[in-house]
Design a protein that fits this description.
- About 55% of the residues lie in helices and about 15% in strands.
- With about 525 residues, the protein is of the alpha+beta class.
- Strands 3, 7, 8, 16 and 17 form a five-stranded antiparallel β-sheet that branches.
- The longest helix is centred in the first third of the chain and has 33 residues, at about 5-35.
Length: about 525
C-alpha cells in the first residue's frame, strides 16, 4: 500500500510528465509543420517550408546548362542569322548591286551542329594546330575548375568536337556570373591598375604563378564565405612588398579620402578582374582572405574564385582563346520531373508503415519510438535546410534511409532487451533500466564505427559520395542522440501516466500487477 505522501508524489510526477508530454508534443508538431508547410505571411512575404529550402542535386532537382563556344566557332542559330542578314542585303541591293555583307557560306565550314570560322581552319577546312592546342587547354581548365566546385553532381563534356557542354545543379549562386568567370582566359597577376587600362600598359606588381602561390580555397568566414590564397615563402615576401608599397603610396597621397580608404589591389586573369581589395598596410602573412564585410560572399562565389585561381597555377590549364557562355538554359531532374516528390512520398509511406508496426508491436514503447523518430527526422531536415554545404541527391537519400534504419534497429534492439528482462520476472521499471543498460555498449560501438566510416568517405571522396558521407555523418550523430536520449526520455515520461504500465507496453504476465 502507498501512504499519503507517496500518493501525492506519484500524482505530482504524473502532472509533471503530462506537462512535459504536452510541451514536447507542441514543439514536435510545430517543427513538423515548419518542415512541410508553405504559406503566405503577408502580402509581400511567403514562408517556405524547410523541405523546400534543401538544395537538390541535378538528379532530383534539375539545374542549369550552357555550351561554351570558343572564338571562331558559332552555333547553327547564329549561322542562320548571318545567312538571313546576307539574304536581306542581297535582296536590298538588287541584281548586280554591291553587297556590303559577306556571304557566311564563304566564311564558315559546317562541322556537325556547329560552324567553324575560316580564321581557325586551314585551306582544307581543318582546324589549325594552334587552335586545337588552345581549345584542348581550355577544355582541361574547365574540367579542373568545375571539379573544384562542391556540386553533388555535374557534367562537362565535348559537344561537336569544338564546344563544351556543362550541366550543374540549381544553387543560390548567380549562375550567369559563375559560367562567365569559369570561362576567363589568360595569366594570373596582381596589379594596381583598373580595368580601363589596356593590358599592354597595366602595371603588373606580381605574377600569380606556382612560384608564389601554393593554392586557393573557400572557407566559411563571418556571415558568409571567403576565398583564401596561400603563398609560398617567396610569394609571402613578394606580396608583403607590393602591399607595403601600395600602402605607402596611399599614405603619401595628398588626397585625404584616398589615404583613408587605401590603395586598391586588383587580381586579374588575363584582361578580366577576378577581385579587388583595398590595401592600407603591408600584409606579411602566409595566407590572405578575400571577403566583403558589407555583402558576404556565398559559398559558390568563393569556390568559383578559388577554382579559377588554382587552375591558373597549372601550366597545362592556361589558355588564351575566349569562350562564350551566354546561352544558359535549365533542365529537368535527370530522374524525372517529379523525382523529388515521388521520393518524398515513398519515404512517407515507409515511415508510416514502420511507425504503425512499432505501435502495434510495442504500444507505449512504440509511442516513445514515434516521438524519438520524429525528433530525428525534423533535426535532420533542419540540418539539410540550413547547412549550405549540403546538396541532396539520390545517394544522399540512400544515406538518410540507412541512418534512419540504424535508429529503427537500435530502438527495436533496446525494446527487445527490455522484453527479455521483463520475461525473467523483473519489475517493469527494472526491466527498462536493465534493457537499456544491456543495449548501451553495442549501440555506442555501432554508431561510433558508422561515424568513423562515414567521416572517412567524406575525406576521400568528392561530389555525390562526399555529400552522401556528410549526410550519413549527420544522420548517425542524430540517430545516436535520439536513440540513447530522446526515445528513452520519452519512454520514462510516458510510463508515469498509465495505471497498468505492463499493458501499456504490451507485456503480459500470468499474474498481472500494477507497477
Amino acid at each position: 500500500c502507498l501512504n499519503k505522501s507517496q500518493l501525492q508524489e506519484e500524482a505530482m510526477g504524473k502532472k509533471k510528465s503530462a506537462v512535459l508530454i504536452i510541451l514536447f508534443t507542441l514543439v514536435l508538431v510545430g517543427l513538423v509543420f515548419m518542415s512541410v508547410a508553405s504559406f503566405p505571411v503577408s502580402a509581400v512575404y511567403n514562408y517556405n517550408s524547410l523541405l523546400s529550402m534543401i538544395d537538390l542535386g541535378s538528379d532530383l532537382g534539375g539545374g542549369y546548362t550552357t555550351v561554351y563556344y570558343p572564338e571562331g566557332v558559332i552555333s547553327q542559330e547564329e549561322y542562320n542569322a548571318l545567312v538571313a542578314e546576307y539574304d536581306d542585303a542581297v535582296a536590298e541591293a538588287g541584281e548586280g548591286g554591291s553587297v556590303s555583307v559577306e556571304n557566311p557560306a564563304e566564311l564558315y565550314t559546317p562541322h556537325g551542329g556547329i560552324y567553324l570560322s575560316d580564321s581557325i581552319c586551314d585551306e582544307n577546312g581543318v582546324v589549325t594546330e594552334s587552335f586545337q592546342g588552345e581549345f584542348d587547354s581550355a577544355f582541361r581548365a574547365l574540367q579542373y575548375r568545375f571539379e573544384q566546385k562542391s556540386y553533388s553532381a555535374y557534367s562537362i563534356k565535348l559537344q561537336d568536337d569544338y564546344t563544351v557542354r556543362v550541366d550543374v545543379p540549381y544553387s543560390d549562386e548567380d549562375v550567369s556570373s559563375m559560367f562567365d568567370t569559369m570561362a576567363y582566359s589568360g595569366r594570373l597577376y596582381f596589379s594596381d591598375s583598373g580595368s580601363d587600362v589596356s593590358l599592354a600598359t597595366k602595371n603588373i606588381l606580381m605574377n600569380g604563378t606556382s612560384e608564389y602561390i601554393r593554392e586557393a580555397g573557400a572557407v566559411a568566414y563571418g556571415d558568409g564565405y571567403a576565398t583564401y590564397i596561400r603563398f609560398t615563402s617567396a610569394g609571402r615576401t613578394e606580396f608583403a612588398d607590393i602591399t607595403g608599397t601600395l600602402a605607402d603610396s596611399s599614405s603619401d597621397s595628398s588626397d585625404s579620402s584616398s589615404s583613408s580608404s587605401g590603395a586598391t589591389l586588383y587580381i586579374y586573369l588575363g584582361e578580366n578582374i577576378l577581385t579587388s581589395a583595398s590595401v592600407t598596410e603591408a600584409l606579411d602573412q602566409d595566407t590572405v582572405y578575400i571577403y566583403n564585410n558589407s555583402s558576404p560572399m556565398a559559398q559558390g562565389d568563393a569556390e568559383t574564385l578559388a577554382a579559377v585561381i588554382n587552375s591558373a597555377l597549372i601550366e597545362d590549364n592556361q589558355f588564351d582563346i575566349s569562350l562564350d557562355a551566354s546561352r544558359i538554359a535549365t533542365y529537368a531532374p535527370t530522374l524525372g520531373e517529379n523525382a523529388a516528390l515521388y521520393t518524398a512520398i515513398a519515404f512517407g509511406v515507409l515511415i508510416l508503415a514502420m511507425l504503425i508496426a512499432f505501435l502495434v508491436r510495442f504500444k507505449g514503447m512504440g509511442l516513445a519510438h514515434l516521438y524519438g523518430f520524429v525528433a530525428y527526422a525534423v533535426v535532420l531536415i533542419l540540418c539539410l535546410a540550413f547547412i549550405d554545404a549540403i546538396q541532396l541527391s539520390v545517394a544522399g537519400v540512400i544515406a538518410i534511409a540507412l541512418s534512419a534504419a540504424v535508429m529503427v534497429f537500435f530502438n527495436w534492439y533496446a525494446f527487445k532487451n527490455i522484453r527479455e528482462e521483463f520475461a525473467t520476472g523483473k519489475t517493469l521499471t527494472a526491466s527498462v533500466k536493465a534493457g537499456y543498460r544491456k543495449s548501451l555498449a553495442f549501440t555506442i560501438d555501432a554508431h561510433a564505427v558508422l561515424l568513423l566510416l562515414s567521416a572517412a568517405v567524406c575525406l576521400i571522396s568528392t561530389g555525390t559520395m562526399y555529400y552522401a558521407g556528410l549526410i550519413f555523418v549527420l544522420g548517425t550523430v542524430i540517430s545516436a542522440a535520439c536513440t540513447l536520449a530522446v526515445t528513452r526520455f520519452c519512454l520514462y515520461v510516458f510510463l508515469a501516466q498509465p495505471k497498468n504500465k505492463i499493458a501499456f507496453c504490451n507485456f503480459k504476465r500470468e499474474e498481472t500487477e500494477d507497477e
